[in-house]
């Protein structure tokens, strides 16, 4: 408590000094650090902190002195003379769980005066999360905070970015939000420095395991379609979700240094034929805009949707999920993660614990891609590679890894079986046909579907779109999973079956 009081007193004294000196001198900056700023580290694990500008008032100012403290220990001193009233000072800081303080002094005659202080500055990695509601859940249970987890600005969703919002700069990231009364929610609440539950958990995992500070900027908008996330004019506009996010990232000085974008979106696009059919082209446009605006992006991580969460009883859920898998196959820098089997699903959103699972699932991929971790087991969800008849009534599904079968699961007092979650078609985009499976068996990375009767069905689908067949109960398993990682297999739709 005494230490906290001393910090408050110190801040008061610094502000008083700055006000006092401002009457006799003034510096205009084109670059300067800010309190709580995260500088993105470069390939040398460092970043340059710059002061550039001019002295616009104070005829007797002859030089500037910069004192840099690392974890409250004096780390560096630089004295820089003025040239035609201009100055340029550069200090290098290194990534790690360290906080830096920058104190800038002016020298007038023999009098040295503190002009400004930037405290709690760190060097680390920057990421973006965006999409619709499942990209930015808040929770009253999300109490984790860290001096090394940062964010910038206000997550506004659809609301305008006001002048008051513009005054919100750097701060500590949070998974909670103002005025939240329910355990999970906040889909449409303005949230300064809000990164969402799983964004906060991802930051925690990176900080604790890899010892690197993290900035996450979340631009999610509840219920938004992909079209509403795309609207980006050539000049940045605060009238669009894309524009508001780009404004925040640019103001943070991270426009060219975001490592990856995490994308959870698609539920709204399951409602219409046009919504899902235009998705591949729209994602291509969105991806190009991301890479044009955020030039440092190396990876895009997208989540395949869980069954459910669409306005229509009979929406295009299978179709959209299949498209998401195809997008990951189309683009080399796009990685996909399954949400199948994530706990606490309520038909659209997830429990606090379920959102923690989002971070736990994607974290190994991030560790592999950005922190040099070599996986010792499979870290991706099972993906179907091929399907073929091996006899007149047996279909062999081959996956990219060894699989595990959850044969049955009880939901709402009724038992459901995995063998009943595979569906067949005679023609593309036609109705499913009645083709019952008597049993299933797994053999390493293969799953054998044994039909009750011999038949020739050219296409197979795994999982219902939204509900258990013939019910209005949201699908919650059983699941096909990876044997080594328990990740739910990616669903697939209308995949061709090679004939016997």
From TrEMBL:
Task: Return any one Pfam family short name.
Answer: SASA
A GO MF term = hydrolase activity, acting on ester bonds
Q: Does the keyword Translocase apply?
A: no
Gene3D superfamilies noted in UniProt: SGNH hydrolase (3.40.50.1110)
Tell me which UniProt keywords the record has, alphabetically: Hydrolase, Signal
Q: Which InterPro entries match?
A: SASA, SGNH_hydro_sf
Q: Which residues form the signal peptide?
A: 1-20
Whether Cell inner membrane counts among this entry's keywords is no
What is this protein's record name?
Sialate O-acetylesterase
């Amino acid at each position: 408590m005494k230490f906290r009081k001393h910090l408050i007193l110190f801040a008061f004294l610094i502000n008083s000094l700055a006000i006092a000196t401002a009457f006799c001198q003034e510096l205009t900056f084109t670059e300067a650090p800010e309190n709580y700023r995260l500088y993105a580290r470069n390939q040398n694990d460092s970043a340059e902190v710059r002061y550039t500008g001019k002295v616009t008032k104070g005829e007797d100012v002859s030089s500037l002195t910069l004192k840099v403290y690392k974890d409250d220990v004096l780390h560096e001193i630089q004295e820089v003379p003025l040239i035609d009233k201009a100055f340029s000072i550069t200090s290098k800081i290194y990534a790690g769980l360290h906080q830096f303080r920058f104190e800038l002094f002016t020298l007038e005659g023999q009098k040295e005066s503190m002009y400004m202080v930037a405290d709690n500055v760190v060097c680390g990695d920057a990421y973006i999360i965006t999409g619709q509601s499942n990209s930015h859940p808040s929770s009253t249970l999300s109490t984790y905070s860290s001096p090394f987890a940062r964010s910038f600005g206000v997550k506004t969703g659809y609301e305008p970015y006001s002048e008051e919002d513009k005054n919100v700069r750097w701060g500590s990231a949070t998974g909670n939000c103002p005025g939240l009364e329910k355990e999970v929610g906040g889909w449409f609440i303005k949230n300064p420095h809000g990164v969402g539950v799983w964004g906060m958990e991802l930051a925690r995992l990176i900080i604790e395991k890899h010892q690197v500070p993290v900035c996450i900027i979340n631009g999610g908008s509840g219920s938004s379609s992909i079209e509403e996330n795309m609207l980006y004019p050539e000049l940045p506009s605060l009238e669009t979700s894309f524009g508001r996010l780009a404004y925040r990232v640019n103001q943070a000085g991270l426009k060219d240094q975001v490592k990856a974008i995490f994308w959870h979106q698609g539920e709204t696009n399951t409602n219409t034929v046009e919504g899902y059919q235009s998705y591949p082209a729209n994602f291509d446009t969105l991806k190009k805009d991301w890479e044009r605006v955020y030039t440092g992006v190396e990876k895009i991580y997208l989540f395949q949707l869980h069954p459910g969460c669409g306005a229509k009883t009979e929406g295009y859920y299978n179709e959209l999920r299949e498209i998401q898998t195809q997008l990951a196959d189309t683009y080399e820098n796009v990685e996909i993660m399954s949400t199948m089997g994530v706990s606490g699903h309520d038909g659209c959103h997830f429990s606090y614990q379920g959102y923690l699972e989002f971070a736990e699932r994607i974290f190994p991929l991030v560790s592999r891609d950005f922190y040099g971790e070599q996986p010792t087991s499979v870290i991706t969800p099972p993906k179907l590679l091929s399907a073929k008849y091996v006899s007149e009534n047996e279909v062999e599904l081959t996956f990219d890894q060894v699989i595990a079968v959850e044969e049955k699961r009880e939901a709402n007092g009724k038992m459901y079986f995995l063998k009943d979650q595979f569906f067949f078609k005679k023609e593309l985009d036609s109705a499913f046909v009645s083709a019952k499976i008597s049993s299933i068996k797994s053999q390493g990375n293969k799953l054998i579907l044994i039909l009750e009767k011999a038949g020739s069905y050219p296409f197979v689908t795994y999982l219902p779109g939204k509900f258990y067949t013939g019910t209005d109960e949201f699908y919650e398993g059983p699941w096909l999973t990876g044997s080594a990682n328990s990740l739910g297999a990616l669903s697939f739709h209308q995949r061709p079956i090679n004939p016997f």
